[in-house]
């Protein structure tokens, strides 16, 4: 019998099934997913693809039957063999490329990580990027650990009434999540102490398994802590500025202390956004405790620290009054105390609304390299932080860019994956090689179209089932209608799914309602739009835009061709980026840092229809989607909105809709399929995390590794 503490009743022949369920590596391995799909497909769907929950609910007779089924056991054994290989450190890209550097890990700090919907500790794109980075690092064999928060209440669950968003915070069911206590080298649960103000907060460390990669999550919800301290890690981006600065102290200072307690000695420290910048305080203090001078300690930290910024607007960067920072750092100074002013000066910045302690300024001044996440974002970031470069000549380097990517094994739809397995069987191992993707051009148009039809069918099946469940939960009939029950599974479908906030302009397409209604309700060429996304609870403009879209979805003018799907998360995202026909993206330029959802759509053959901002400024080739470009740019927002909306309508009327409905004698839209092939061929290798992580390794990690080795 299996003795896994969570699953003690597994048949002996399936003794490692619990181990497989608890390692989220399964979520991007098709063989491992097949184990759980085959075991009980109905339960697999009912649990939103959560195998931990499955194993708590599955009937023992089904397990016994699987343990005696040779076909199932063959799939199971193959998955375990692949898991063992995925955990091995031998014969990886990293060992071949970087065998000369010390085998000490990269420590990657982020406020959120999106790995799978069964672990809801993410809000949006930043978390998805961090999760994809961790997955790819493991696939390539990098020694790599992630550090974040174990939010017991996660991000909010969205409920939509007739005209508004409501937020529910639901406590995580720990026994149904793929997380376990992290252990120190002597086998004890890892609990560390973090000074916070005039008190000490205890922090438990949890571990998430990701094949080769380890992800450690910090949690203050311990009985020994005061009630208000137990709440510090309760919610992602919850609370006020006081809460935020305390969370960031725990992430930075506590994260370093946790790694030390776990016996982990990173060679490179990667800060994903300014939230983690207090890492440098703890590391400088460690060097001072060893007798270093402040300037030498800071120089050493710079040599071995990498910083990535994702935020293209000044207001989006965390900044706090100095008195607030000093109050909460009161117990953290130690040997750094006499250099307190030197440290605080690293964060001093005036963005036009007064001088504050700015976390991004701290990160830029105390790290050796700063990168933006697209070429356009690099230019924006250079302009935004130009005073920092100018005031410290010869010390700081101007910002560079590493354009974001997506983890292809996670985001490629099953139907497309099967097609690629047949026509380009090495794609899983070589998907950053552009030449490999030329094979898609030789795939018969009918096969491509059949794949796209299947992915769209899956989207509409998901939408109908979700609204059926909402009906059983008591939502109103109008809400069931506006949730997508009237959609046509054969009509051209545009998708808009992302965080609802002002600069993303979710209502731009409604600029001229009558013109849009004519496009949507055309008898022979109908078009429909499905929306999804959350507005931050404190973002009133985002909430207003979301309310506007919900009202449009109920407006008879649009004939039931507008829908809003609630509670957008990773699970919903997979259906959207695979099943829509067109991915609509119309941010106010240049405020889109990257926009990785469009990459996910394009690699599945969903054609991108976007403003030339973020990654699309690099990705658009003229034949792999459409560029919304009115040819004018003005600071008058109303005028720009009107120009962008006009360009968008014209593209829909003159290019997008005709290409979709122009069919050959076999009802295949050959012009459309040609663009689908180009989207898959051009976006997949260039905008993958395989390319991205290799770029980080070559340009940032290896130089930092070599600096770390030289300083020892």
Write up this protein.
There is one protein chain. The chain is an alpha/beta fold and 712 residues long. It folds into 3 domains: 76 residues, no CATH class; 293 residues, Glycogen Phosphorylase B (Rossmann fold); 278 residues, Glycogen Phosphorylase B (Rossmann fold). It is 46% helix and 14% strand. It is built from 30 helices and 21 strands. The strands form 4 sheets. Strands 1, 2, 5, 6, 7, 8, 9, 10, 14 and 15 form a 10-stranded mixed beta sheet that branches. Helix 10 crosses helix 11, helix 11 crosses helix 12 and helix 14 crosses helix 15.
Blueprint (SSEs and pairs):
Blueprint: H1 17-22, H2 30-39, H3 41-46, H4 51-57, H5 60-67, H6 70-87, H7 93-98, E1 106-109, H8 125-140, E2 144-149, E3 157-160, E4 165-168, E5 180-181, E6 191-196, E7 199-210, E8 213-219, H9 227-230, H10 241-261, E9 268-272, H11 279-289, H12 294-303, E10 305-308, E11 319-320, H13 322-328, H14 340-347, E12 348-350, E13 355-358, H15 359-366, E14 369-372, H16 375-384, H17 386-391, E15 400-401, H18 408-411, H19 414-423, H20 427-430, H21 445-472, H22 477-485, E16 492-497, H23 513-520, E17 527-532, H24 540-553, E18 562-565, H25 570-579, E19 582-585, H26 596-603, E20 607-611, H27 616-619, E21 625-628, H28 637-661, H29 670-686, H30 689-710
Parallel strand pairs: 1-2, 1-9, 2-8, 9-10, 10-14, 14-15, 16-17, 16-19, 17-18, 19-20, 20-21
Antiparallel strand pairs: 3-4, 5-7, 6-7, 7-8, 11-13, 12-13
Helix pairs in contact: 2-6, 8-30, 10-11, 11-12, 14-15, 21-22, 21-25
């Amino acid at each position: 019998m299996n003795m896994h503490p969570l699953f003690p009743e597994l048949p002996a022949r399936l003794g490692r099934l619990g181990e497989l369920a608890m390692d989220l590596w399964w979520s991007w391995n098709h063989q491992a997913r097949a184990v759980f799909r085959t075991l009980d497909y109905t339960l697999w769907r009912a649990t939103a693809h959560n195998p931990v929950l499955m194993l708590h609910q599955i009937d023992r007779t089904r397990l016994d039957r699987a343990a005696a089924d040779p076909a199932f056991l063959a799939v199971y054994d193959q998955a375990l063999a692949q898991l063992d290989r995925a955990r091995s450190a031998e014969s990886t890209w990293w060992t071949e490329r970087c065998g000369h550097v010390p085998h000490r890990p990269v420590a990657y700090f982020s406020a959120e990580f999106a790995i799978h919907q069964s672990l809801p500790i993410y809000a949006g794109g930043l978390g998805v990027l961090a999760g994809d980075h961790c997955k790819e690092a493991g696939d390539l064999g990098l020694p790599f650990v992630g550090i974040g928060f174990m939010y017991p209440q996660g991000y909010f669950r969205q409920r939509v009434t007739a005209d508004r968003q409501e937020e529910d915070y639901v406590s995580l069911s720990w026994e149904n999540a793929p997380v376990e206590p992290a252990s120190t080298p002597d086998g004890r649960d890892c609990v560390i102490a973090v000074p916070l103000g005039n008190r000490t907060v205890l922090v438990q460390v949890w571990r998430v398994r990701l094949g080769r990669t380890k992800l450690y999550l910090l949690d203050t919800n311990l009985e020994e802590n005061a009630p208000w301290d137990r709440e510090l890690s309760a919610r992602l981006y919850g609370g006020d500025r006081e809460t935020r600065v305390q969370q960031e102290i725990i992430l930075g200072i506590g994260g370093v202390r946790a790694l030390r307690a776990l016996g982990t000695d990173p060679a490179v420290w990667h800060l994903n956004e300014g939230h983690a910048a207090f890492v440098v305080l703890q590391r400088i203090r460690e060097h001072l405790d060893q007798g270093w001078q402040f300037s030498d300690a800071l120089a050493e930290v710079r040599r071995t620290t990498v910083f990535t910024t994702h935020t293209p607007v000044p207001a989006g960067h965390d900044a706090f009054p100095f008195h607030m920072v000093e109050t909460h750092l009161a117990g953290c100074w130690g040997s750094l105390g006499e250099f307190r002013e030197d440290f605080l000066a690293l964060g001093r910045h005036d963005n036009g609304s007064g001088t504050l302690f700015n976390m991004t300024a701290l990160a830029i001044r105390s790290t050796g390299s700063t990168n933006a996440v697209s070429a356009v974002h690099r230019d924006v970031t250079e302009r935004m932080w130009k005073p920092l470069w100018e005031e410290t000549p010869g010390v700081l380097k101007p910002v560079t860019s590493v354009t974001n990517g997506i983890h292809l094994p996670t985001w490629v739809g099953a139907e497309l994956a099967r097609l690629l397995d047949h026509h380009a069987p090495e794609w899983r191992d070589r998907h950053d090689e552009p030449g490999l993707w030329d094979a898609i051009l030789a795939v018969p148009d009918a096969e491509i179209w059949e794949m796209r039809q299947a992915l769209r069918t899956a989207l509409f099946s998901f939408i109908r089932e979700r609204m059926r469940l909402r009906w059983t939960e008591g939502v109103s009939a109008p809400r069931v209608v506006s949730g997508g029950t009237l959609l046509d599974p054969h009509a051209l479908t545009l998708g808009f799914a992302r965080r609802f906030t002002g600069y993303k302009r979710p209502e731009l397409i409604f600029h001229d309602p009558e013109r849009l209604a004519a496009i949507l309700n055309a008898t022979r060429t109908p078009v429909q739009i499905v929306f999804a996304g959350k507005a931050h609870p404190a973002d009133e403009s985002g909430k207003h835009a979301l309310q506007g879209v919900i009202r449009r979805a109920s407006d008879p003018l649009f004939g039931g061709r507008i829908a809003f799907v609630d509670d957008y998360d990773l699970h919903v995202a997979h259906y959207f980026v695979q099943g829509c026909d067109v991915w609509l993206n119309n941010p106010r330029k240049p405020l889109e840092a990257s926009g990785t959802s469009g990459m996910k759509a394009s690699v599945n053959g969903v054609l991108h229809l976007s403003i030339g901002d973020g990654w699309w400024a690099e990705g658009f080739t003229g034949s792999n989607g459409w560029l919304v470009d009115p040819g004018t740019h003005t600071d008058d927002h109303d005028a720009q909105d009107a120009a962008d909306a006009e360009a968008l309508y014209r593209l829909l009327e003159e290019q997008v809709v005709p290409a979709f409905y122009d069919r050959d004698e076999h009802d295949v839209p050959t012009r459309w399929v040609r663009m689908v092939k180009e989207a898959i061929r051009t976006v997949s290798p260039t905008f993958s995390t395989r390319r991205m992580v290799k770029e980080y390794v070559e340009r940032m990690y290896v130089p930092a590794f070599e600096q770390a080795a030289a300083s020892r």
